Amino acid sequence: MRKYGLRSVLMFSFLFFLIGIGQAAQMVDRIVGVVNGEIITLQDLQQQIRLVVGQTPDPATAEKIAPQVLDSMIDDIVLRQEAQRLNIVVSDSEVENEVRQFKVRRRLSDEDFERSLRLQGLTPEQFKERSREDIVKHKILGYMVRRKVVVTQEEIDAYLERNRSELTTERVVSLQMVVFADRQGADTIWNSLRGGEIGIDEAVERYSVGPKADKGVMADVNWRELDDPWREGLRTLSVGEVSEPFLIQDRWVIVKLLDRRDGERKESAAVDEEVREAIMRPKLEERFKEYMAGLRSKAIIQKKL
């Protein structure tokens, strides 16, 4: 039998190494979606999953949320292509102004704003990008939807009646949260928490795909910083209680209420503006979902996960 010299062995090894690199690159860069000819690669998807989760997830978690994240990326591309078709452009100054107005509407200091972003697991850059997308949404809605969304006085009065105690005081809460990529995982850990099999500190450390700094604790959060899903999840909790899992921006959250304090009453004008915004937001979102469904039905979409 002929024996190969060391040089030959090294050459063959190097060849197989190069082949392996090529195959790995091909796997990472393979196409997982196409939207009207625009491609989404596996690498694009993996990067977006990291942004959604806030860190590099374990393989099982990444696999579970990949289809959901891919659908969201498809929606973004469809929307961007529609904005281009309509010649809708959003400038950087518009984005900066939207961020400023967001702070003004919610009366947030820079510190409050940064805390609110951490609560949502967002960086300032991600928030700006979301603000840009929101501006595009509102421009498209204004351009394409003929009937304006109307908030009636009856709706305002009813909302005030349901939420008067929260709207007329400056409520401040401290909470601890565990964030999950899917409902099944959230339900499993919630049952373990309820049964005393695990503590919330351990749940944050071992299972949370959200912020883990300070064991997931967000201290002294103004109630007005919280969107409706957060308020609904916290509203009925007593201090020390843990909520059932609830959905926040495609992620499932379990929250422990650590503290709640009610402070000075808010001005009437600020309350009216907050109520109008709270009623308007879901109406616009529902109209936008209908519009997006129409756009997707006309688009040529391929998913290759």
Describe the structure.
This protein has 305 residues and is an alpha+beta fold. Strand 1 (31-35) and strand 2 form a beta hairpin. The chain has a domain at 169-262: Chitinase A, domain 3, CATH 3.10.50. Helix 2 (42-53) packs across helix 3 (59-85) and helix 7 (153-167) packs across helix 11 (268-298). The longest helix is centred in the last third of the chain and has 31 residues, at 268-298. The strands form 2 sheets. A 4-stranded antiparallel sheet has the order 4-3-6-5. A 3-stranded antiparallel sheet has the order 2-1-7. It has helices at 6-28, 42-53, 59-85, 92-105, 110-120, 124-144, 153-167, 183-194, 200-207, 228-235, 268-298, and strands spanning 31-35, 38-41, 171-180, 217-222, 246-248, 251-262, 301-303. 60% of the residues lie in helices and 14% in strands. The chain has 11 helices and 7 strands.
Instruction: Please count the helical segments.
Output: 11
Shape: globular
CATH topology of the domain at 169-262: Chitinase A, domain 3
Helix proportion: 55-70%
Rg is 24 Å
Secondary-structure element pattern, one letter each? HEEHHHHHHEHHEHEEHE
Span between termini: 47 Å
Q: Which stretches of 5+ consecutive residues score pLDDT under 50?
A: 1-27
Q: Give the quaternary arrangement of the chains.
A: single chain
Proportion of strand residues: 5-15%
CATH top-level class of the domain at 169-262? Alpha Beta
What is the number of E strands? 7
